[in-house]
Structures are given as structure tokens and as C-alpha cells.
Amino acid sequence: MEQTLSIIKPDAVKKGVIGKIIDRFESNNLRIAAIKKLQLTRCEAETFYAIHKERPFFKDLVDFMVSGPVVVMVLEGKNAVAKNRELMGATNPKEAAKGTIRADFADSIDANAVHGSDSLENAKNEIAFFFGAREIC
Ligand code: ADP
Ligand code: MG
């Protein structure tokens, strides 16, 4: 069993597809072990995406992530990290495989509907960033 962090980004929350995205996880054996809706502060978004701070898109990414509420979740299941990345599809929705979340719900590389941890190590850190042990079950 693995756990990974998923974020439904502001574009998908605004579109009203929280339920449809959660259905993709639950239909593919990823259990929602924790969930909450929140508005990221600029400082939180910058800290969460600190790994990208030298990239040219960093400011746009942070601006976008604070543009509205997000839903953060801990997904749990067999190979959860890789399974979530597979269900999400490629970063650029134009390149995302048919039937993936980004192909179906994302509009652009900036507004790409979901975040998912890219390794078990990052998943542990990202989960700890948003959730205390008391909030995960
Ligand atoms: P992923 O979300 O697929 O793990 P990355 O970790 O590489 O992708 O990038 C984090 C986020 O930064 C992406 O989801 C996307 O919103 C944004 N991003 C990545 N690359 C670009 C780019 N070339 N132009 C604009 N935004 C980008
Ligand atoms: Mg990433």
C-alpha cells in the first residue's frame, strides 16, 4: 500500500468537476484517506512548489494556484503514486492520453486540473505539508 497527494486545482474546482475527478480515483482502486477544500496563501503555494522556483513558469504557477480554492486529498492504494500519475495524464493536456483526467478536464499546461506527487519520497513530504496524522484514516 502507498499513499500519494492529489490536488484538484482551481480550474477544475471552478468548473464543478470535483466529484467527477474523485470518481476516477475511486473507480481505479484509489481510496480517499483524507480530503479537504482550502484556499492556498501565496506563501504556501510558493513553499509547496519551491522545487520549481527557478523555472520561468513559477510566478504564473503560483498565481494560478492561489486564484481560487483547491481540494487536497491523500489517495491510498497499491502503487498509488504511479497509478495517480497514470490517471492524471501528461502535464500538457494536449499530450495527455485519451481518457485521462487532464485530457478530459484540463484546458492548458497552466490550468491542468490536478497535481499528483511524482515519487514516494515527495508524496510523504507533500502529505505532511497538508495533513496531520489525526486527519488521515
Ligand atoms: P506535473 O504537475 O505533471 O508534475 P511539473 O511538476 O513539471 O508537472 O510542473 C508543475 C506544474 O507547473 C504543472 O502541473 C503545470 O501546472 C506547471 N507547468 C509545468 N511546466 C509548465 C510550462 N512549460 N509552462 C507553464 N506551466 C507549466
Ligand atoms: Mg510535478
UniProtKB/TrEMBL annotation:
It comes from the Bacteria. Signal peptide: none annotated. Its cofactor is Mg(2+). It is found in: Cytoplasm. Its EC number is 2.7.4.6. This is Nucleoside diphosphate kinase. It is an enzyme of class 2 (transferase). InterPro entries: NDK-like_dom, NDK-like_dom_sf, Nucleoside_diP_kinase, Nucleoside_diP_kinase_AS. ATP binds at residues 9, 57, 85, 91, 102, 112. One of its GO terms (biological process) is CTP biosynthetic process. HAMAP family: NDP_kinase (MF_00451). It catalyses: a 2'-deoxyribonucleoside 5'-diphosphate + ATP = a 2'-deoxyribonucleoside 5'-triphosphate + ADP; a ribonucleoside 5'-diphosphate + ATP = a ribonucleoside 5'-triphosphate + ADP. Belongs to the NDK family. The active site is at residue 115. GO terms for molecular function: ATP binding; metal ion binding; nucleoside diphosphate kinase activity. The gene is ndk. The keyword Transport does not apply. GO terms for cellular component: cytoplasm. Keywords: ATP-binding, Cytoplasm, Kinase, Magnesium, Metal-binding, Nucleotide metabolism, Nucleotide-binding, Phosphoprotein, Transferase. Residues 1-137 form the Nucleoside diphosphate kinase-like domain.
